[in-house]
Amino acid sequence: MSKITMLARKAVQVLTPYLSARRIGGQGHVWLNANEAPDSSVYQLDSSALNRYPEFQPPQIISAYANYAKLDTTQVLTTRGADESIEILIRTFCEPGIDSILICPPTYGMYAISAETCGVDVAQVALQDNFDVDYDAVEAAVLASNGHNKIVFLCAPNNPTGNILDKQKLAKLLTATEGKALIVADEAYIEFCPELTQTDLINDHENLVITRTLSKAFALASIRCGFTLAQASVIEMMGKVIAPYPVPGPVAQIAEQALSADGLEVMRDRVAVLNNNRQVLANELSKLDCVVEVFPTTGNFVLVRFKDSAKVFQAFADDGIVMRDFANKPRLENCVRITIGNSDEMSKTLSTLNSL
Ligand SMILES: *Cc1c(COP(=O)(O)O)cnc(C)c1O
User: Distance, CA 82 to ligand 1 centroid (Å)?
Assistant: First the structure.
């Protein structure tokens, strides 16, 4: 071990960093590996005051998002992407070396990595056979942890399986764990199924936290802008831990335009197109011989189990189509996640599969 490695914190020495789609890279001209939107809009930037620090929480975007989410401005925090919200939650509520978070795999990888970088343990309650949350087992694990399981991360639509949450069961879990743990519902993809949001539970449950992002349906992954929705008491605690200027001025300007009435309309039109493309793709996939299973389709992606995913993955690569491989993940053998792109990208995807 090098001297510098030995200087690093133990938790960092043993850490495997999150392999984002960008870090994995790939070669091709059709990018369907990061659940990004296929189009980008044009925004106006005013660069006249870049010498000044930005607002701690730019009021224009806080009020625009509160309005969009039908919540009070005191119930909204904006962060450097939803990923920063995950990290701030852990740093605000988990005592390093003592507390833990609870995750339900297979799910989004950043919860565990964020916890590990903070020296916080990761407990697991596996998703059920159909990849729905096992609410009773989660409740039992939180209650059995002597107050040490401080945060439960649920993801809905779940990345990568597409499963959603059951509002009644979630409400029961929130009540059972009140005062013991926060229940986080990661709604990174909720714009693709807005009727399934859990924001209406916030006013009744102080331990519910919802994370959101502009990276997916809003087509703004590049600007790194996310939101946390919860009762004001939670937002205030997180406000103690967050960086002093978390949202760069130019980011706030773009976010404000994206959250305007026009911006919301553009987003909803995009969602309608992508949801339609998703339906077409899912229908076609289910007819193919090489496909074993198409998982629930609720976000801008679809997880597919193939008979031989290595062969499929190679065929995509040969045709310059970059997908996200999940075949090495437990319980996701032979699975590939396909981001829903524009109709041209979807035809190319299907033509590669048809050529097999
Ligand atoms: C993409 C994604 C995020 C991260 O969003 P950013 O705002 O880009 O940091 C969080 N959670 C899930 C489930 C995601 O898929």
Answer: 5
The Cα 8–Cα 303 span in angstroms is 37
Instruction: Please indicate whether residue 108, judged by its CB atom, sits closer than 6 Å to ligand 1.
Output: yes
Q: Is 275 in the pocket of ligand 1 (CB under 6 A)?
A: no
**159 secondary structure, DSSP code:** T
Residues 202, 226 within the same domain: yes
Any ligand 1 atom below 6 A from CB of 83? yes
Strand partners, 100: 121, 149
Q: How far apart are CA 161 and CA 135, in angstroms?
A: 17
Q: Which of 331, 324, 287, 261 is nearest to 30 (CA)?
A: 324
Q: Are residues 221 and 77 in the same domain?
A: yes
From first to last of its 356 residues, the chain has per-residue pLDDT tens of: 788 899 998 888 888 877 776 777 777 889 999 999 999 999 999 999 999 999 999 999 999 999 999 999 999 999 999 999 999 999 999 999 999 999 999 999 999 999 999 999 999 999 999 999 999 999 999 999 999 999 999 999 999 999 999 999 999 999 999 999 999 999 999 999 999 999 999 999 999 999 999 999 999 999 999 999 999 999 999 999 999 999 999 999 999 999 999 999 999 999 999 999 999 999 999 999 999 999 999 999 999 999 999 999 999 999 999 999 999 999 999 999 999 999 999 999 999 999 98
346 lines ligand 1 (CB under 6 A): no
Please name every residue paired with 325 in a beta bridge, in sequence order, or none if there are none. 336
Q: What is the residue range of 157's domain?
A: 59-260
